[in-house]
Design brief:
The complex is a heterodimer of chains A (about 425) and B (about 375).
Chain A: E1 3-6, E2 22-25, E3 32-36, E4 41-44, H1 50-57, E5 62-63, H2 76-82, H3 89-92, E6 99-105, E7 111-115, H4 126-130, E8 139-146, E9 148-149, E10 153-161, H5 164-176, E11 183-188, H6 189-196, E12 209-217, H7 219-235, E13 238-243, H8 247-258, H9 260-263, E14 270-273, H10 283-296, E15 300-306, E16 311-318, H11 325-342, H12 361-364, H13 367-380
Parallel strand pairs in A: 1-2
Antiparallel strand pairs in A: 3-4, 4-8, 5-9, 6-7, 6-8, 10-12, 10-13, 11-12, 11-15, 14-16, 15-16
Chain B: E1 12-13, H1 23-26, E2 32-33, E3 50-52, E4 60-64, E5 69-73, H2 78-86, E6 90-91, H3 104-110, H4 118-121, H5 124-127, E7 128-134, E8 140-144, H6 157-160, E9 170-176, E10 178-179, E11 184-191, H7 194-208, E12 217-225, E13 228-235, H8 239-246, E14 253-260, E15 276-279, H9 285-293, E16 299-302, E17 307-310, H10 318-331, E18 335-338, H11 355-367
The chains are: A alpha+beta (about 425), B alpha+beta (about 375).
Chain lengths: ~425, ~375
């Protein structure tokens, strides 16, 4: 009988959906087994909630860096399954950069531990390979996570723009100026409308887009960098640039960003989000393309983006009760993802493939590539009972999508 | 390993692109070894009857400075790659403790990326975004993407890094990059005992960040060569501030402070050629350095990364090393990895195969069922 591991069920690509069979619900394996502050790591069960780990680590001056928007509910096990990211991955990396080892159970019941409490990984690393495999090879039961020192200070800035293109142009320009923010997020007008009608985070309602930029480090170091960021934003036509003057103001801005997706429920009966990624220099192009595609489908689209990573989250608004509404939203999303591939990007940055995008995977990889990956899945999950039907196309629906786009060389490596 | 004793292959090829490695070619071969050293000379293994030298596969595939990503073929050397990105004011925060300039093919195959940068910036695992390899049928296979975030398909790089190309030769690799940090201050001290250096390391960190756990050092290492202990480090903080932190530390000799405009490379120390990598928790490092002080062995230690590179090790030291160091490390859940290319040393022959070795053997049997590529490294 098939079996599917599941954490909090917050995944957005259907990785934990079970089509028949048994769900192994891991949310009660929620013990934080140990924290070793001097060695900067913790040992957790997979059902520990991301935010809970951070709350426990914070008094010790430490934190778990991956911070997906669902961090109040999502579990560390789920973070591993999808290789979760979040706003702060620009500087600190994704989940695979913060897991030192794990104990796993294979489909035949074999238990093994890979990696260990050593701060760096050297040589072949099966534990890191497992991260992002969406529970299709083994189930994590105990995880050693790296904890990073909390920065001595943080500066959060808000840049406001009259055009989305000015905002996206600023993103590359900030990094080209030699500044590496720990977060560089974009929120567009429709999303701002939703947030402000709900939370009053402080985003100007008339703005076409805002950039939320955060630096960390010592005050002395950040001051110079903040000045550079301000100068770059203004030279890219920011109509205003401000630095949060208090922790309360900073928290309010972040509340707006973290709840941006949820706030959209205020202005649309339903929305469908995807997770495309493009090279950062193509951010302006993909945003224009996204608006155009939505318009062609007679839909509106809002965006929150991990702009520094080139990771967009178009939130395609639709009415599920309207005839063909869901189909148009899905088609719109697929076209945006195809545009991401054409621009040298990926169909998913942090949500995973799951069942949602498995038929799009052949657009990124050749048959030989997929066969090579599936050989690993079939070899390590030989009866295919563990989380079947995920990631890889089932062969019946992907043919129509083949050959529609040309993939630039280098895209896939 | 003495280069004069390297086993010779029966035949040899210098492909200029992966397409030269197609199945029709493969019909001629038994075992493939996809390694190459900096001299462009391939290193084989017993039983190899066909070798690839990848040093002519050395093109830049894609370098988009604005996107801070680069994709290259593996015949490029690490120095060349770093220089290339530094010309665009970018930085690949990887180094090697061996003081050489390896081909990326070799660097990846052996994973010699644990360095004085690793406590802050990790190793190859943290910077490789994707790769192209050759499968057992001679086909090119790809994994990853040339963007900063990607979870499409399985990420194969963690399996190929350090696998000595036993899963197949890697032809192309892509890296993410950082803006170039500048300016930097480089310091160098000598001391009689490692405990002085460890105390200095702790003192400086506390001076810089009294209330937190942040670390001011971008690069940091302790070395012992010919019984002389020394410490090298570099930081983004200006030299006057560094001097302020370090002025009151007792027991340090010959302090040298240098201001640099670009991040320095880790310098090779003497004739040191590390043979063993010991990994343990950072808090266990000071104790082990004390033990090693009483043994007469050269070493490079990255205390904040919990890593010690030991060697060269004389045959006469093996027994005492086993008794005084390796057994206690095993008892403390530490691990030891052989760094040489010859395969497992005698000292580790008695080690029970770990879960890592077992799973990598399984992965190899899946991806290379006919065993056409070279053997896997020992992973004790």
């Amino acid at each position: 009988m098939p079996f599917v591991p599941r954490g909090a069920g917050t995944g957005l690509s259907g990785g934990a959906i079970c089509d028949g069979g048994v769900i192994i619900q891991l949310s009660r394996m929620n013990r934080l087994l140990a924290i070793y502050p001097d060695d900067c790591y913790a040992v957790v069960q997979p059902g520990v909630v991301n935010n809970y780990l951070n709350l426990q680590a914070r008094p010790l001056g430490l934190g778990f860096a991956p911070d997906p928007s669902s961090q109040a509910a999502c579990t560390i096990g789920g973070n591993l399954a999808e290789n979760a990211g979040g706003p702060h991955t620009l500087k600190y990396g994704v989940t695979s950069n913060h897991v030192l080892g794990q104990t796993v159970v294979f489909p035949d019941g074999e238990v093994a531990t890979y990696g260990g409490p050593y701060p760096v990984r050297s040589g072949p690393d099966f534990s890191t390979f497992l991260i992002g495999t969406e529970g299709t090879i083994a189930i994590s039961t105990e995880i050693i996570v790296r904890l990073v020192p909390l920065p001595p200070d943080v500066t959060t800035m808000l840049a406001v723009y009259k055009s989305v293109a000015d905002a996206t142009d600023s993103v590359s320009a900030i990094l080209a100026a030699g500044v590496l923010p720990n977060a560089l997020e974009l929120i567009d007008n429709l999303c701002i409308q939703a947030v402000e009608s709900h939370l009053k985070a402080g985003f100007p309602m008339e703005a076409a887009a805002v950039l939320l930029i955060e630096l960390d480090g010592t005050k002395q170091m950040m001051q110079t960098k903040a000045e550079t960021v301000g100068r770059v934003c203004k030279s890219n036509a920011a109509v205003s640039f401000s630095i949060a003057k208090s922790e309360e103001e900073r928290q309010r801005l972040w509340l707006g960003r973290k709840h941006a997706v949820g706030s959209l429920g205020k202005i649309t009966p339903a929305f469908y989000t995807n997770d495309g990624v493009v090279p950062r220099s193509r951010l302006t192009d993909i945003m224009q393309t996204s608006y155009r595609i939505a318009k062609e489908h007679d839909l509106s689209v809002a965006h929150v983006c991990h702009a520094g990573d080139g990771n967009i989250h178009p939130l395609i608004c639709y009415n599920p009760d309207e005839s063909g509404g869901s189909q148009r939203a899905t088609a719109c999303s697929t076209e945006i993802l195809m545009a991401c591939i054409e621009m040298g990007g990926s169909i998913t940055g942090e949500h995973g493939i799951g069942i949602e995008k498995r038929d799009l995977l052949p657009q990124m990889f050749s048959e030989v590539d997929l066969e090579h990956m599936q050989r690993l899945r079939n070899g390590l999950n030989p009866e295919g009972l563990l989380n079947p039907g995920k990631i890889f196309p089932n062969g019946s629906r992907c043919g129509e999508l083949r050959g529609n786009v040309s993939i630039p060389r280098g895209t896939w490596i | 390993m003495d280069l004069n004793t390297i086993p010779e292959a029966n035949s040899f090829t210098w492909p200029e692109h992966g397409s030269a490695l197609q199945p029709s070619k493969r019909l001629m071969v038994g075992t493939l070894i996809g390694q190459a050293n900096t001299a462009g000379k391939s290193i084989g293994s017993p039983g190899a009857n066909y070798q690839w030298d990848l040093s002519r596969i050395d093109k830049i595939i894609s370098f988009r400075a604005h996107d801070m990503v680069i994709a290259v073929e593996v015949g490029l050397t690490l120095d060349k790659l770093k220089t290339l990105v530094e010309d665009e004011h970018l930085w690949l925060p990887l180094d090697t403790p061996r003081g050489d300039d390896p081909l990326l093919a070799n660097y990846l195959a052996h994973d010699h990326s644990l360095s004085w940068l690793s406590h802050h910036h990790g190793t190859l695992h943290d910077w490789v975004m994707g790769l192209t390899a050759v499968d057992h049928n001679g086909h090119e296979v790809h994994s990853g993407a040339l963007v900063l975030k990607n979870v499409a398909g399985y990420q194969l790089a963690p399996l190929y890094i350090g696998a000595r190309m036993a899963l197949g030769p890697v032809l192309e690799v892509s890296f993410r990059l950082l803006p170039m940090p500048t300016p930097v201050t480089l310091v160098h001290w000598k001391a009689d005992h490692p405990s002085t250096l460890m105390a200095a390391c702790q003192h400086i960190t506390q001076q810089c960040y009294p209330s937190g756990r942040s670390d001011p050092w971008e690069g940091f290492r302790i070395t012992r060569l010919d019984n002389q202990w020394s410490m090298d480090g570099w930081t983004l903080y200006p030299s006057d501030l560094v001097k302020e932190w370090t002025d009151k530390i007792e027991g340090l000799e010959d302090e040298i402070l240098t201001e640099l405009k670009v991040p320095p490379r880790e310098k090779h120390v003497g004739n040191q050629r590390p043979e063993l990598l010991i990994q343990l928790r950072p808090t266990q490092v000071a104790g082990l350095l004390d033990t090693l002080h009483s043994l007469n062995m050269d070493l490079t230690c990255y205390p904040k990364a919990g890593a010690i590179l030991l060697g060269p090790i004389a045959l006469t030291d093996m027994e005492v090393l086993q008794r005084e160091v390796l057994k206690p490390i095993a008892a403390k859940d530490g691990r030891v990895k052989v760094m040489t290319t010859e395969g497992a040393m005698d000292i580790l022959n008695a080690t029970t195969a770990s879960a890592e070795s077992a799973i990598m053997a399984r992965v190899k049997s899946i991806l290379d069922p006919e065993g056409v590529f070279g053997p896997l490294p020992e992973i004790p």
